[in-house]
Amino acid sequence: MKKPVIAVFDVGKTNKKLFLFDEQYKIVFERSARFLEITDEDGFPCENLESLRLSIFDSLHEVFRKSEFEIKAINFSTYGASLVHVDENGRPLTPLYSYLKPYPEDIQREFYSKYGGEDQFTFQTASPVLGSLNSGMQLYRIKKERPELFKKIKYSLHLPQYMSFLISGKLYSDITSIGCHTNLWDFSKNTYHEWVEKEGIKDKLAPIVPSDSVVPATFPGNNYGVGTGLHDSSAALIPYLVSFQEPFILISTGTWCISFNPFTSSPLTKEELQSDCLSYIQYQGTPVKASRLFAGHEHEVEVKRIAEHFNQATSKYKSIAFESKYFEIVNDKRNTQAFSSLDLSSFSSDIEAYHYLMMNIVTQQKRSTELIINNSGVNRIFVDGGFSKNSIYMNLLSRVFPEMEVFAASMAQATAMGTALAIHKSWNTQPLPNDLIELKFYAASKQTKI
Questions:
Q1: pTM
Q2: Of the residues 191, 206, 228, which one is the last residue of a structural domain?
Q3: What is the SS3 assignment for 261?
């Protein structure tokens, strides 16, 4: 008897993955691919959209040939801030421009002055000024610089919805992509911002459908449904939202450490926006307040510096246990300097230096996470990603949040799993499992003044 599964495409900037999940949300097949970047007409690196398109079809042909599986549904999650501009036949008109591409200062200046100034506009859209990372600004740039191209655009689709279109033939927009620092959505009015209508941008955006929508496939094969796709940050939050009813903060750690609070309704303040906070819209349509910290990047850079100075291998720091004696030593040495400016010869050992680095990072993490707690009644913090496996980080975090229950959370492929869970009712005959997430509790031994 064939095993019912869902196929999930999880597209990151570097790795493009396909997973098959069974009805208990166990991964029963996976495939990974990487593509060389190409360049756009200005010579700036960008995604190879054609390679990505062909890879989707190749991967599906492969899994459809596997007689042990019955594919009941397909869904997609990808990185955000990336638009595919298609003509009336659904063919891309441009490269998939990178959100890292510098944005013209004159166009940006003119835009914000036209629509109330940066302070007012960023408050309304819950989007800090981020240039091309505000994906709506990419479309505005085309209108200004290449009006003839703008006229040819039937729809501008965020990448997850373009991938869904390739299989379903249906053109839709999704709120998790639109509601993520795009400059398109007015959070105060819960609709598109007025500029989207005034500039004719709304006509270039496909109809919005609920994030759990499923449509029939045009791709040959069995009778299966196709989800309309999700923004990856929103998808990664879904396993937590379906598993826990009590309010929580999720700190998702990687290159960026992003703190999510789905349990506050207070709008972003000017101070929060200036402190790198923003709002997402999660798959059920409600706002999620978030704050960002570049801590994973800092950790990577400084670990290399410590290893070099003390003549150690960087791999050593993946499994260093928390030791109270070092904590007491480095706590006495603490000052307000950034770790990167410290002379490492002031430390007696690399272990002492590493404890100091982690204290420095957790100090910043406390400030970042507190920005979005904001009296919202939350008493649990879940940490997933790289730092959830770091004993020093987790022990320090429990100490700086003594009033919270702090857990390291782990699961296989949170983003892909969340993408499958979003359309659970459309493909899965079983109830949701209660063991999606594995938790490890870190008790605060005492309050730590940091």
A1: 0.88
A2: 228
A3: strand
